Amino acid sequence: MININEETQKQFIEKLENAEDKSAAIVEVINEIQEQNNNEIIEQLMKEQENAIADKEYEKKLGLRTLSKEEKDFYSQIKLGAKQSVTFDQNDAFPTSIIDRTIADLQTKSEIMKLIKFTPADVKKWITGSYTGSATWKGLSKELVGELEATIGSLNIELGELTAYLVIPKAITDLSLPFVDKFFRTVLQEAMIQGIEEGYLIGDGNEAPIGIYKQIDKSTDGVHTDKTVNTDVTNFSPKGLAKAKNYLSKDGKRVLTELVILCNPADEANFVDPALYDATGNNVSSFKNIRVVPSVKNPQGKAAIAIPNTYTMGFGGIKETKYDQTLALKDADLFVSKLYGNGRADDDNTAYVFDVTKLEEYVPTVKTIAVPQA
Q1: In sequence order, what are the beta bridge partners of 354?
Q2: What are phi and psi of 289, to 5 degrees?
Q3: How many CB atoms lie within 10 A of CB 343?
Q4: 297 lies in the same domain as 152
């Protein structure tokens, strides 16, 4: 995460207020913020590199990767790019193994990332389905093939484009390749995580993933339609969850073993937690295997009860280009990373959207037992 002190914030605000070209000033401020943050990462890695040279046990604890030839060639270009102009013109210039490893790291840091099934990065198309079609030990009939095709769709991984700006400090030339790898994956994670969460939740499907708040098969001019926001979830009692669970199970065709409540952090505090927990913090939901996953990318006012691991996302590759259309940075180069990918849920019934403001605070039921008089 990027931390900026109060004095630096004032300087950035002043620069934006006084700029004649607001657009150029915004890009320049973004560059300076990224440069400041990434230089701190470089300094930390320099210290780690020095300690690793002197202490082999310490080096093992850093978890440095053994790089493939393809990865070494790529990072050598990155280091060269910090000295002179280098442009990566081909989509396959970026080793897909780096994408796979970066996503694996992200899944240990983001609860939403844990809900997504990621395809291998070198796969261009991927089959995604709800697996609710019929099956038989006998040979497949034409009717059965048609029924299976109705529940299984193809996901074109290369349709969407997630753009990230990566500032590469020139000091990267002082790092060995394993530490360049560690730096690159660190900044790539920060650039990717917000975009992936946004795509999973509210992506409109127009050169982007189809988010869980959108309908898969209904769109206008490529923009997918919002799902209906239901108003029936007012508590997490058996009756309160009945309609949502029936929808998610596809009227009994799917067994629900785990559920998540996706919401905005503000709605978690104001509505979800008061309805889900009692005064001592005990979960009062009738469905005990349920947990809350907040995200700043989740729109306020609505939430979703969703089934984990029923959403597939994949990335086909990254295109790296050097960005030279703004003022040159003194100590860093700006690269534009375009990550080509896509994503969608197995079906619309994997997430039940509801008005989170309708949730009522949990009030324990008090039973009065009449004691007969003697």
Answers
A1: 230, 303
A2: -90, 65
A3: 29
A4: no
